[in-house]
Design brief:
Layout lengths: L7 E7 L3 H12 L6 E7 L6 H6 L6 E4 L5 H10 L5 E4 L5 E2 L3 H11 L5 E9 L7 E3 L10 H7 L8 E4 H6 L11 H11 L4 E12 L5 H4 L1 H16 L4 H20 L4 H17 L3 H9 L16 H15 L3
Length: 323
C-alpha cells in the first residue's frame, strides 16, 4: 500500500477579503501537510489582501488580476493545479480538524474514491455561533444522485475530488454565479464517480449579512432550480419550498402579515411546484396531489401531515366565525 500522502491542491478564490484571508491561509499551513499546494486567485483586490499575500513568501502561489467572478477564478486555479486531488476554500472560510490529513486517511482506505465528502459547520462573521452544515447520506447502497437531488446538502469546503474526474466531466461551469458547487457535485454523480464520506468536521463556512449567498437568496435558489431542471428535468420538494417560502415572505407576509400563513404557504408551494415541474406531467401531478410543505421551513422529512393541515384549517374557520 502506498503510504505517501496524496497531493492536494487548494484553490482560494479571493476578492477584498483581507480581514479573513490570514485565518484561511494559516488554517491550511498550520496542518503541516507535506503534499499541499495553495493557489490564491485574487480578483484584483483593492483592500490590503495583496500586501497580506506577499507576507507568505513561497508558502503559497498567488495571482491578483481582474477576473469574471468566483467561478472564473476557481476554474483558472484548477487549470494550474499540480496535484491529484482538488478543492477550493473561499477566502472567508476555514479548514479545521486537520482536514487534509483526514481526507488522506479516507483515500488510503478507499483508493478508488473520486469524491470525498466531509462534514462541516456554519459560523458567523467572527467565527462563533457555530451550527452543523447538513450533509447528504453516503451510507452503503445509497443513491447519491437521488440524495443530491432531494437534499443538495454538501459543505462545499469539505468536498475534495480527483483532478481527472474534474476534467472528465468538463470542469466547473463559469456561467454560474451561485451554485457552481451544486452543479459540479451533480455532474460528478451522474458521471458515475464514487463518493465516499468522511465523518470529521472539515470546514467552517461563514454566513453573515454581506456574503454573496445570504444577500441574494432568491437568485441563488433560482439558479439551483434551473440547474436541477437541466440535469434532472424537475425541481425537488426541498427547493420548491425554499423558493415558495421566500416568495410568500416577500409578496405576502411582508405586506399582509402571517395570518392564515399555513394556507397561503401551501398555495405558494403548489403554484411554484406547477411552474417548475409542468414539463414532467406525472411527477408534477404526484406533487400537486401528495407533496406539501414542512411545518416550519424547507426541512427534508419534516412534512406537514393531513392532520396538521386539517387542524390549521379548522382553526381558520373557527376564527372566521368569531369562536
Amino acid at each position: 500500500m502506498n503510504t505517501a500522502p496524496i497531493g492536494i491542491t487548494v484553490v482560494v478564490p479571493s476578492y477584498n477579503q483581507g480581514r479573513f484571508i490570514d485565518e484561511t491561509l494559516d488554517g491550511l499551513l498550520d496542518q503541516g501537510y507535506p503534499a499541499l499546494e495553495i493557489l490564491v486567485m485574487d480578483g484584483g483586490s483593492t483592500d490590503d489582501t495583496v500586501e497580506r499575500l506577499k507576507c507568505y513568501g513561497d508558502q503559497i502561489t498567488w495571482v491578483s488580476e481582474k477576473d469574471r467572478g468566483q467561478s472564473d477564478a476557481i476554474a483558472k486555479g484548477f487549470a494550474r493545479a499540480g496535484h491529484e486531488w482538488l478543492t477550493w476554500l473561499n477566502s472567508d472560510d476555514i479548514q479545521c480538524n486537520r482536514a487534509l490529513w483526514a481526507v488522506n486517511d479516507v483515500v488510503t482506505v478507499h483508493p478508488d474514491a473520486d469524491v470525498v465528502v466531509g462534514q462541516g459547520h456554519y459560523m458567523d462573521e467572527h467565527g462563533g455561533n457555530t451550527r452543523p452544515y447538513p450533509t447528504i447520506d453516503l451510507g452503503q447502497g445509497v443513491d447519491v444522485a437521488q440524495q443530491i437531488f432531494l437534499k443538495g446538502y454538501m459543505a462545499q469546503p469539505s468536498v475534495f475530488f480527483r483532478k481527472n474526474a474534474y476534467h472528465r466531466i468538463g470542469g466547473i461551469n463559469p456561467a454560474l454565479k451561485f451554485c457552481m458547487d451544486y452543479d459540479l457535485w451533480t455532474r460528478f454523480t451522474l458521471a458515475g464517480c464514487r463518493f465516499v464520506g468522511c465523518d470529521a468536521d472539515l470546514s467552517g463556512n461563514r454566513w453573515y449579512a454581506t456574503t454573496k449567498s445570504s444577500g441574494q437568496t432568491l437568485d441563488l435558489l433560482g439558479e439551483v432550480a434551473a440547474t436541477q431542471i437541466r440535469h434532472f428535468g424537475c425541481v425537488s420538494p426541498y427547493f420548491v419550498q425554499a423558493i415558495s417560502d421566500n416568495l410568500y415572505q416577500l409578496f405576502h407576509a411582508n405586506q399582509h402579515g402571517d395570518t392564515h400563513h399555513v394556507l397561503y404557504r401551501i398555495l405558494y408551494f403548489k403554484t411554484v411546484w406547477l411552474w417548475f415541474n409542468v414539463r414532467r406531467p406525472m411527477y408534477c401531478l404526484r406533487g400537486l396531489l401528495i407533496e406539501t410543505i414542512a411545518k416550519s421551513g424547507p426541512i427534508v422529512g419534516d412534512k406537514l401531515t393531513l392532520t396538521d393541515l386539517w387542524r390549521g384549517l379548522r382553526n381558520v374557520f373557527r376564527l372566521q366565525r368569531g369562536g
